[in-house]
């Protein structure tokens, strides 16, 4: 324990970066567990002071179009597969993980590219922009967000950065192995390769933390309607009214 | 001529020691207070040492000191090719950077691991053609890639197209560093009935001597005692004193036996690492043992130069070789190579006597193993390439494969090479006929050639080998004490060929001395030995029989003079027999050898080496004679130069059964015939022929020299990865024979044989493989199982043509 | 900075247990710090060159229970530290399982077979020269393969089943034992487990750093060969650059039951083409029930090489494997 970076000797005996120290995986796991448990306890203690839970009945407004829901779940599935297949050999599971890993990685890459393009031209990109005013939101209970809350925007952009880092480093690593599309080369100098492995490892650790947090909030009772909306597409007007400011977000009525 | 010793088998004096294991090699010596040195060698193919931090290592318990290039070369490293003792600009992986001395090897290793060397990495290259290409990396210091004799380091470049077209199979168009020519080349090609043109490649590979080049040194009373490993003794010690920087009279080189010497242990310049324990011992004032590892033996032990070549050969309708045009780019490795390319051309000019010939050659460095002399350097790379070409010509012209060799073969009076030098003698026709008869060549050709049995095919091959095999101009010393025993001071190294003992027998022959009454004085230079040529170039037999014979003749003349003076008559009235010098007309009048030695001791002066010495004695010999003078009845001789090229020839015939499904072949039968003048030592000759055969099989079928093109690290450092042929890869028996006709330039008619013994076998083997493959010419050596399988399956891999230090070259 | 060549044995604690329980207890307590020593042929090079480090060594060859060849109700059991020479020369093995006797007799050289053990031959590490040189490649826990590249020296490497690492299974006895449907007996201080020979070896896709299923603390103690293939028709051929002291370029081991020229059943395994001994089940299926002929040999040869993915320098292994399968079918 204690080290962040692992080193190796390059072909000529000089020390270069090998990658992240996987001891950190346990550090991240423990830290996330502790933080989320603390959050759960605090939320439970505060629960009786909370307002009533808004009703999911009644008129529905559209929160996520089906194509975006599909994107989300494909992305989620690929990230979970990537995390599992990536971590399996580290924790000693003897499975043939690599093909699943890069195939999932490619899927993730494609859907992320799709999402970026779609978000810029077909979606309300502004709804996800994190502006200075958003930072006051957590401290002012009267201030309600538009389509996405401060936490949601924060999670989105954190995931964006981390997933892009994972993808860029992952694609560079993918180029270093045999695939149906090319034969591998040793074209990348070992120190650069080590740096890519390190960044991939660090972003993986961040992704594990973010994914855990995201899943945790997704199953929290007060946020469960968001999760439902990611399956069904809609939230109720009641839920909308309780959590969002209609002047900032005017959704279509759901079918 | 009937000899008493020449042509007879005997037991060389070192044999009992070798059989019982009592003989001592450098590593077997010890000295009180001895410490152990280990080397830190370069992990990088081309680099510059920027800094060395050894403070942690030197602070360790049991560590006595460090030696770096700055210690060895305080005024900077010599600006020349060749291995340095230690270097700050390594040009190959494994080159020694520094040595550390410690109480034991383990401590030294631990200390080495604690030393921090900072390198500046420099571009490296592993294929000469890659270096020749514009923009290609250069292997040598100062961004150079070649070393031109008398000019120094230089950079040679070809255009991209010139390199590409050569790789694609065309004649190189760039100007070569070296060129020689004779005859009307264009005219001869124009008149040729058959012309064959191809590019070719041959692999370099290391010596793999059983004994690595370990050494132990200590200083005592201002003298340096160095236990080393060499194939020469005085020939090496003479230069080694200079490398260490010690006066010749204060240098004792001790080397009783050597575990293999094949070229790179002949001269001090190729084993400068022996100076490391000497210098370290001087610095820390303790005896130092430096054991070299197997890998170190590979990396700085020297290797053969690989060739990337182009050849065009023309034949007249009658099968005579009309012309040869040869262009070779030779891989000079990390430290500069030798004259292999020109020697390859010389082989063709000698063996096939073309009417016209042009040779062009260029040496280019690569950051691979150090290159230099190795058994038939140049000739033996060419042998396996040219032999199948001859067969192709024979088949095209409708001449038998035997006849095309016989028609072209050199004979007495023939000349060769750029200087059109005449041979001292050549009995190659006799050797060919002997191989033909003993091998039943004609019958095999008609009944067995290309016979098929399932996937197996019979192939027959004939090969010839040549090397110039003799020098002159060295010195001889013999002494006799009052016990009447003959002491032959022989400076020849004991490299395992027994030539140190065999050549001594020429002296015994002169004095008609029974062998058991002779002592070969050898093994260490403080035994007062004469200078000899280094034991390379197959020269020892010719060169040192001349000196031993001459020194004994001097002793004989002195015996006769003493007898005539004391007992009456003229010296010519006397001769020797039964260890007596006695009158020819009355054998009762004379002295025993003991008596004449006693008289010599009384008379002194020239008889005891104190006066009237030959004028041209080398400095080394002068020191030896001066130390013996007055204590012994002495014969001293300086050998004048001989005329002409001393030849060593071999002919090999073999039959193989090649399996087209596995690419493997079995050598069913093989015969090698030596043509080396009068045979000096039949058992020794047989050993040379058989040992050479095993290596020839390695050259044509097995051995490889691999470096990873990505990072310049060697992949074939040991016996396994180098694929040295094993017992089951060689024929069960290798028949041998010899022509045994005298050479006029040697007093007992002998010439050398070591190098061609390998070349003819490699030539016969590639010829047999091509024969079994329906005449397909691989134009490369070695030809390995994968190449045969690929050829049969019609697979052409994406490998770079003519690549060096790789699987295909 | 390290030196490129060491050739000096480091300090190491040597344990020489003579009974099974002791050896297993040592293996358990030392875990991956305890280097298991059989004949030493896959040990001393690693340690002397300090390319692998071990602080302790457990010599297994003094445990009598793990030595020798015993007849069992269902075949034979060979102790894992039995020498290859003893196996090659054993009358029982020769008469019933000639395939293994031949394969054991083709390992390396007589000197190595005299000290080398069956277990050592089976669990020996990859012979990829980059890995053996001590480079930090995938197999050594690094993040790249030096062999699988356009310029890499990969003539001896895999044509099947590579996954980042392209090293091959170097063992001569492994394909023979796969063909004989042997079972590996794995012991540890917590008990014994058995694994079919075929599943004993692991490719890089599943575990890039280990070539077998052995975990720390586990020792391969015996190999059981069932009666199923006793006295079948066997064929073993190893093609290597040299006839002594070399690893296979490709090897083939087959056991066939032939009746009246018809192949009743067959097991076929090839060595040195994949990181594990490659069982050629498609070939077995194609052989079953067929009349032995040159045509059949040609047909199954192309099945055997189906899907091969040669590297830059090992294309020859494809026809070579096909040819060896042909020869095995011809008998």
Keyword list:
heterotrimer; A: 255 residues; mainly alpha; Fumarate Reductase Cytochrome B subunit; two-stranded antiparallel sheet; two-stranded antiparallel ribbon; C: 331 residues; alpha+beta; Uridine Diphospho-n-acetylenolpyruvylglucosamine Reductase, domain 2; five-stranded antiparallel β-sheet; four-stranded antiparallel β-sheet; 13 helices; 29% helix
CATH superfamily of the domain at 13-62 in chain C: Uridine Diphospho-n-acetylenolpyruvylglucosamine Reductase, domain 2
**Rg over C-alpha atoms of chain C, rounded to the nearest angstrom:** 20 Å
Could you please say which CATH topology of the domain at 379-468 and 646-793 in chain B applies here? Aldehyde Oxidoreductase, domain 4
Across the major sheet of chain B, the strand order is 3-4-1-13-10-11-12
What is the largest interface, and how many residues per chain? Answer: B-C, 58 and 44 residues
Brief rundown of the structure:
The complex is a heterotrimer of chains A (255), B (809) and C (331). Chain A is mainly alpha-helical and 255 residues long.
Question: Care to describe what's here?
Answer:
- The complex is a heterotrimer of chains A (255), B (809) and C (331).
- By secondary structure, chain A is mainly alpha-helical.
- Chain A has a domain at 67-243: Fumarate Reductase Cytochrome B subunit, CATH 1.20.950.20.
- Chain A contains 7 helices and 4 strands, in the order E-E-H-E-H-H-H-H-H-E-H.
- Chain A has helices at residues 23-46, 66-87, 98-121, 150-174, 190-219, 224-232, 237-243, and strands at 5-9, 15-20, 60-62, 234-236.
- In chain A, the strands form 2 sheets. Chain A has a two-stranded antiparallel sheet with strand order 1-2. In chain A, strands 3-4 form a two-stranded antiparallel ribbon.
- In chain A, strand 1 and strand 2 form a beta hairpin.
- In chain A, helix 3 packs across helix 4 (150-174).
- By secondary structure, chain B is of the alpha+beta class.
- Chain B contains 24 helices and 31 strands.
- In chain B, strand 24 and strand 25 form a beta hairpin.
- In chain B, helix 11 packs parallel to helix 12 (379-397), helix 12 crosses helix 13 and helix 21 packs across helix 23 (756-772).
- Chain C has 331 residues and is of the alpha+beta class.
- Chain C has a domain at 13-62: 2-Layer Sandwich (Uridine Diphospho-n-acetylenolpyruvylglucosamine Reductase, domain 2), CATH 3.30.43.
- Helices cover 29% and strands 21% of the residues of chain C.
- In chain C, helix 12 (294-304) packs antiparallel against helix 13.
- The model of chain C has no long low-confidence stretch (mean pLDDT 95).
- The chains are: A mainly alpha (255), B alpha+beta (809), C alpha+beta (331).
- Chains in contact: A-B, A-C, B-C.
- Chains B and C meet through strand 1, helix 4, helix 10, helix 22 and helix 24 of B and helix 13 of C.
């Amino acid at each position: 324990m204690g080290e962040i970076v692992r080193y190796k000797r390059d072909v000529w005996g000089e020390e270069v970066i090998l990658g992240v120290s996987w001891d950190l995986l346990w550090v991240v796991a423990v830290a996330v567990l502790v933080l989320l448990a603390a959050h759960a306890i605090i939320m439970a203690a505060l629960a009786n002071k909370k307002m009533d839970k808004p009703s999911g009945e009644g008129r529905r407004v559209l929160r996520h179009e089906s194509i975006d829901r599909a994107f989300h779940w494909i992305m989620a599935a690929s990230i979970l597969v990537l995390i599992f297949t990536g971590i399996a050999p580290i924790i000693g599971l003897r499975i043939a993980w690599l093909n699943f890993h890069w195939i999932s990685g490619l899927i993730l890459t494609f859907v992320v590219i799709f999402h970026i393009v779609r978000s810029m031209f077909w979606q309300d990109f502004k709804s996800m922009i994190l502006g200075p005013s958003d930072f006051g939101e957590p401290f002012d209970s009267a201030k309600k967000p538009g389509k996405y809350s401060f936490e949601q925007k924060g999670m989105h952009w954190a995931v964006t950065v981390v997933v892009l880092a994972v993808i860029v480093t992952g694609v560079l690593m993918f180029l270093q192995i045999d695939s149906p599309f090319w034969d591998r080369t040793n074209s990348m100098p070992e120190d650069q390769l080590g740096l890519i492995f390190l960044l991939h490892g660090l972003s993986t650790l961040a992704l594990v933390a973010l994914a855990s947090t995201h899943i945790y909030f997704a199953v929290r009772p007060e946020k469960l309607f968001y999760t439902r909306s990611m399956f069904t597409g809609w939230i109720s007007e009641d839920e909308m009214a309780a959590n969002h400011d209609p002047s900032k977000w005017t959704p279509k009525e759901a079918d | 001529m009937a000899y008493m010793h020449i042509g007879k088998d005997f037991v060389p004096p070192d044999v009992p020691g070798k059989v019982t294991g009592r003989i001592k090699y450098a590593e077997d010596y010890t000295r009180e207070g001895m410490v152990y040195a280990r080397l830190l060698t370069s992990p990088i193919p081309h680099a510059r040492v920027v800094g060395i931090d050894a403070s942690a290592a030197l602070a360790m318990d049991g560590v006595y000191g460090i030696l770096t290039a700055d210690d060895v070369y305080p005024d900077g490293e010599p600006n020349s090719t060749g291995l340095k003792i230690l270097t700050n600009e390594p040009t190959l992986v494994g080159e020694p950077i520094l040595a550390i001395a410690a109480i034991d090897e383990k401590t030294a290793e631990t200390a080495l691991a604690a030393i921090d060397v900072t390198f500046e990495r420099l571009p490296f290259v592993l294929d000469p053609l890659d270096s020749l290409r514009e923009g290609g990396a250069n292997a040598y210091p100062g961004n150079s890639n070649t070393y031109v004799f008398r000019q120094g380091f230089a950079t040679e470049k070809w255009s991209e197209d010139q390199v590409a077209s050569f790789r694609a199979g065309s004649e190189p168009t760039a100007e070569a560093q070296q060129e020689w020519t004779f005859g009307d080349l264009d005219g001869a090609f124009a008149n040729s009935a058959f012309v064959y043109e191809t590019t070719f490649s041959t692999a370099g590979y290391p010596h793999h001597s059983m004994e690595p080049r370990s050494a132990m040194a200590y200083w005592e009373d201002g003298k340096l005692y160095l236990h080393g490993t060499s194939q020469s003794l005085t020939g090496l010690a003479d230069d080694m004193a200079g490398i260490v920087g010690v006066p010749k009279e204060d240098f004792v080189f001790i080397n009783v036996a050597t575990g293999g010497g094949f070229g790179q242990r002949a001269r001090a310049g190729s084993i400068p690492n022996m100076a490391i324990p000497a210098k370290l011992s001087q610095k820390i004032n303790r005896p130092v043992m430096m054991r070299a590892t197997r890998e170190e033996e590979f990396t700085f032990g020297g290797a053969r130069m690989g060739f990337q070549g182009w050849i065009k050969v023309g034949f007249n309708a009658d099968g005579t070789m009309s012309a040869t045009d040869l262009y070779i780019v030779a891989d000079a490795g990390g430290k500069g190579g030798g004259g292999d390319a020109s020697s390859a051309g010389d082989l063709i000019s000698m063996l096939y006597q073309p009417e016209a010939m042009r040779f062009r050659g260029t040496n280019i460095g690569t950051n691979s193993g150090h290159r230099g002399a190795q058994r038939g350097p140049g000739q033996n790379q060419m042998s396996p390439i040219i032999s199948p070409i001859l067969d192709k010509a024979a088949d095209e012209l409708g001449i038998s494969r035997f006849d095309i060799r016989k028609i072209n073969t050199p004979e007495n009076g023939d000349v060769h090479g750029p200087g059109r030098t005449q041979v001292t003698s050549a009995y190659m026709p006799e050797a060919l006929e002997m191989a033909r008869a003993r091998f039943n060549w004609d019958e095999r050709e008609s009944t067995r050639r290309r016979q098929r049995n399932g996937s197996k095919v019979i192939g027959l091959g004939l090969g010839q080998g040549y090397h110039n095999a003799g020098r002159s101009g060295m010195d001889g010393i013999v002494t006799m004490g009052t016990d009447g025993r003959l002491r032959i001071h022989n400076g020849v190294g004991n490299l395992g060929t027994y030539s140190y003992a065999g050549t001594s027998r020429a002296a015994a022959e002169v004095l008609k001395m029974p062998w058991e009454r002779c002592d070969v004085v050898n093994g260490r230079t403080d035994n007062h030995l004469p200078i000899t040529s280094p034991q390379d170039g197959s020269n020892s037999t010719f060169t040192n029989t001349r000196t031993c014979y001459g020194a004994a003749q001097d002793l004989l003349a002195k015996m006769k003079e003493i007898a005539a003076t004391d007992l009456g008559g003229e010296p010519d009235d006397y001769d020797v027999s039964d260890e007596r010098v006695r009158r020819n007309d009355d054998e009762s009048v004379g002295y025993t050898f003991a008596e004449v030695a006693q008289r010599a001791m009384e008379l002194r002066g020239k008889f005891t080496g104190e006066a009237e010495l030959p004028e041209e004695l080398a400095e080394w010999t002068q020191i030896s004679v001066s130390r013996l003078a007055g204590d012994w009845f002495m014969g001293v001789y300086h050998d004048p130069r001989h005329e002409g090229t001393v030849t060593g020839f071999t002919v090999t015939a073999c039959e193989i059964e090649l399996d087209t499904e596995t690419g493997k072949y079995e050598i069913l039968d093989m015969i090698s015939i030596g043509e080396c003048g009068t045979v000096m030592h039949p058992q020794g000759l047989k050993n040379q022929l058989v040992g050479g055969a095993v290596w020839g099989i390695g050259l044509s079928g097995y051995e490889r020299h691999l470096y990873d093109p990505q990072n310049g690290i060697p992949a074939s450092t040991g016996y396994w990865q180098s694929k040295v042929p094993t017992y089951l890869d060689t024929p069960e028996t290798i028949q041998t024979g010899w022509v045994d006709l005298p050479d006029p330039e040697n007093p007992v008619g002998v010439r050398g044989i070591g190098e061609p013994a390998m070349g003819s076998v490699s030539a016969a083997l590639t010829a047999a493989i091509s024969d079994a493959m329906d005449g397909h010419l691989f134009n490369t050596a070695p030809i390995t199982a994968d190449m045969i399988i690929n050829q049969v399956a019609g697979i052409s891999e994406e490998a770079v043509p003519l690549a060096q230090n790789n699987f295909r070259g | 900075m390290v030196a490129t060549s060491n050739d000096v044995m480091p300090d190491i604690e040597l344990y020489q247990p003579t009974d099974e329980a002791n050896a297993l207890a040592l293996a358990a307590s030392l875990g991956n710090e305890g280097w298991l020593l059989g004949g030493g042929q896959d040990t001393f090079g690693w340690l002397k060159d300090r390319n692998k480090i071990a602080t302790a060594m457990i010599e297994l060859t003094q445990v009598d229970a793990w030595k020798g060849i015993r007849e069992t109700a269902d075949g034979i059991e060979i102790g894992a530290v039995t020498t290859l020479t003893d196996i090659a020369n054993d009358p029982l093995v020769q008469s019933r399982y000639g395939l293994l006797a031949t394969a054991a007799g083709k390992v390396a050289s007589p000197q190595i077979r005299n000290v080398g053990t069956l277990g050592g031959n089976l669990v020996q590490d990859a012979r990829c020269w980059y890995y053996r040189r001590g480079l930090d490649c995938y197999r050594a826990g690094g993040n790249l393969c030096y062999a699988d590249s356009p310029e890499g020296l990969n003539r001896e490497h895999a044509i099947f089943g590579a996954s980042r690492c392209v090293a091959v299974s170097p063992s001569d006895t492994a394909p023979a034992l796969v063909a004989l449907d042997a079972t590996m007996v794995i012991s540890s201080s917590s008990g014994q487990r058995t694994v079919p020979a075929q599943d004993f070896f692991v490719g890089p896709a599943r575990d890039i750093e280990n070539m077998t299923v052995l975990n720390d603390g586990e020792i391969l103690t015996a190999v059981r060969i069932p009666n199923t293939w006793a006295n079948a028709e066997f064929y073993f051929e190893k093609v290597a650059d040299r006839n002594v002291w070399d690893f296979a370029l490709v090897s083939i081991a087959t056991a066939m039951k032939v009746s009246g020229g018809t192949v009743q059943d067959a097991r076929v395994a090839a060595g040195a083409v994949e990181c594990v001994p490659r069982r050629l089940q498609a070939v077995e299926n194609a052989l079953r029930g067929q009349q032995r002929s040159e045509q059949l040999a040609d047909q199954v040869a192309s099945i055997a090489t189906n899907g091969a993915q040669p590297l830059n320098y090992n294309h020859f292994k494809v026809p070579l494997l096909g040819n060896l399968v042909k020869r095995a079918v011809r008998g």
